[in-house]
Amino acid sequence: MPFPKDPFAFADALADVLRLPDEALAMSYLYMNKYLRFHRSSSTPDPLDPYTLSLSTISLAAKSTESPRRLSSILLPAHALLHPSSSTEQQPLVIPSSTYDTLRATLVQADLILLRVLGFQLHLPSPLEYLQRYLERAMEGVDTVGEAFDEWDREAKDEYGVLSEIMEGRMGRRCRAKAVDACRNYELADLFPARAVALGAVYVVLEASRLRIEQGVSEWVKDIGSGKVDNEDFEEVVAILRST
User: Fold this and answer.
1) From the CA atom positions of the chain, what is the Rg in Å?
2) N or C: which end of the chain has fewer CB within 10 A?
3) pTM above 0.85, yes or no
């Protein structure tokens, strides 16, 4: 059984085991970085160890992205990830048991602590909210001259193997992966607007795909971002994304 080397790897693995969408994992990263920022500027002791924090961010992010999971569904695989069954001294977590009751109470308390740090605001702006519209605008003029696939009904799309939307294609998947990873980065998660991070992710993916934009970068940012993305923010985001 794989063993996570750090809290972010733990969140990654747990999100996959729980079959959570990218939106939930990205939100958990945003929660984690917001919590870390709070305690870096606070003189009070941090009450949560890194893995309990990671577990709590997954628990709350699943709820806030409308993909809730039962506590037992979260705790059983979480315990297995942190305590591999190959260890002769470690027994698997079972229900009912005093260990499960303790872990459940710990997670409930951790969720409350995290909620307080978040100001009970579970919806944080996420780059994933803007990705599709930015990628569609960036590809405008190319995906509109051929077959109008968006007008096909579900049955026709299934019959001919047509993807439902641009985000399901290779470039869309790469943009999503880049945006989710950006939420994991402390600087990008805490210091830049979600719109700038989303637009930066699209630009870096286009660049990596060897696709050049037609106009100047500043004009492109204004056009694709509808004038709502600051050029300096965009340039800094792109520089960070290129280096990660």
Assistant:
1) 21
2) N
3) yes
